[in-house]
UniProtKB/TrEMBL annotation:
SUPFAM superfamilies assigned: Adenine nucleotide alpha hydrolases-like (SSF52402), DHS-like NAD/FAD-binding domain (SSF52467)
Purpose of the protein: The electron transfer flavoprotein serves as a specific electron acceptor for other dehydrogenases. It transfers the electrons to the main respiratory chain via ETF-ubiquinone oxidoreductase (ETF dehydrogenase).
Gene Ontology biological process terms in this record: fatty acid beta-oxidation using acyl-CoA dehydrogenase
Record text on subunit structure and interactions: Heterodimer of an alpha and a beta subunit.
Short name of one Pfam family: ETF
Family of this protein: Belongs to the ETF alpha-subunit/FixB family.
Entries under InterPro entries matching the protein: DHS-like_NAD/FAD-binding_dom, ETF_a/b_N, ETF_a/FixB, ETF_asu_C, Rossmann-like_a/b/a_fold
Cofactor: FAD
Name the record gives this protein: Electron transfer flavoprotein alpha subunit apoprotein
Keywords assigned by UniProt, alphabetized: FAD, Flavoprotein
Residues the record lists as binding FAD: 237, 260-261, 274-278, 291-298, 312
Gene Ontology MF terms in the entry: electron transfer activity; flavin adenine dinucleotide binding
Domain Electron transfer flavoprotein alpha/beta-subunit N-terminal: 7-197
């Protein structure tokens, strides 16, 4: 009996946890598997010994087969190393047989892995997709993978059909999860029946040519990661460089701090906090823009936000056209008052 077509999902992790993108990617994979009779495989960068993550999260998230890939010289605690992630997916593809689709998170690293994987396999690739489906051929064939994505800062919505046998799609997991996309179908396979297949891979010449001499982890703060936060408070030119109110409100809401390109160019915030087409793409449930004008390149990075609150002294600011709540006010004055009110209400609720 021929093996069922497979969808392979790259699980991005920072041990001892996997990132939120894993559940959204697995949910998308299982919807396709349920509708088209596919198998779901996960690829996980790890080590073939008792690390506690040998089995990966795939079983818990309903994978049929889990591929734990030990890449020589790779840090098993960090799956975003591009060379290691690439080898993990290639190992899984070699073992699955007729793979039809590879799903990755549309992060900086995920998009690079997608491009390098496409070059290595000759597959068609789509990055920044908001959803993925399979459309059957009129002649009764196996159909094409079709990815939906917005372009030109959300001005257009496109459908990209991949005509190659293997499709590679880097999915914007926040957009996919905005409509219960992170919820697994009820009929996903049990973790108890998900076999684990271990692989050992040598790095490719390009990866082996780089030697890591030392690593200094960025100090972890109490705020959630920008790309994964449910609440993000973004400061722009209107803050005048004073991010104290932005940080105060973010801490009161339990959210992350972001910045526009102008704010990072001016040195008011680290480049890692830049939200936009050339920065981080976010999809929080609540976005608060403080002194943000709403330039098209910034909107391209936050268009998938749930509720958008915009604060600006200019009543004609472009961001107001995309806001659910528009407040014409000085952000530097309003933000501390909002933070104080949030803390007061939470204190009353818990008291």
């Amino acid at each position: 009996m021929a093996a069922a077509p497979a969808v392979v999902v790259l699980i991005d992790h920072r041990d001892p946890r996997w990132l939120r993108s894993a559940s959204a990617l697995l949910a998308a994979a299982h919807r396709l598997a349920r509708d088209h009779g596919w198998d779901v495989h996960t690829a996980w960068v790890g080590h073939d010994h008792g690390h506690g993550h040998d089995h990966g999260p795939g079983g818990e998230l309903g994978a049929a087969v889990q591929h734990v890939v030990d890449v020589e010289g790779a840090d098993p605690h960090l799956a975003s190393t591009v060379s290691a992630a690439l080898e993990a997916v290639v190992a899984a593809l070699d073992a699955t047989g007729p793979a039809r689709l590879v799903l990755l998170p549309s992060t900086f690293e995920g998009r690079e892995v997608a491009a390098r994987l496409a070059a290595a396999t000759g597959a068609g690739v789509v990055v920044g997709a908001s959803s993925v489906t399979v459309e059957e051929d009129d002649d009764g064939g196996s159909g094409h993978v079709v990815a939906q994505k917005s372009v030109l800062a959300g001005s257009w919505h496109t459908r990209c059909a991949v005509t190659s046998e293997l499709a590679i799609v880097a999915l914007d997991t926040g957009a996919a999860g905005s409509a219960d996309g992170a919820s697994l179908p009820q009929d996903t396979p049990s973790a108890a029946v998900a076999p684990v297949v271990h692989h050992h891979r040598a790095p490719r010449p390009a990866g082996a040519a780089v030697e890591v001499l030392s690593r200094s982890p960025r100090p972890a703060g109490d705020r959630p990661a920008l790309a994964e936060a449910d609440v993000v408070v973004v400061g722009g030119r209107g803050t005048g460089g004073d991010f104290s109110g932005v940080e105060d409100l973010a801490d009161a809401l339990g959210g992350a701090v972001g910045a526009t390109r102008v704010a990072t160019d001016e040195g008011w915030a680290p480049r890692a906090l830049q939200v936009g087409q050339t920065g981080v793409t976010i999809s929080p449930r609540l976005y608060v823009g403080a002194g943000v004008s709403g330039a098209v390149h910034h909107r391209g990075g936050m268009a998938a936000s749930g509720t958008v609150v915009a604060i600006n002294t200019d009543p004609d600011a472009p961001i107001f056209e995309h806001a659910d709540i528009a407040v014409v006010a000085d952000a530097t004055t309003l933000l501390p008052a909002l933070a104080e009110e949030v803390r007061a209400r939470r204190s009353r609720e818990t008291g």
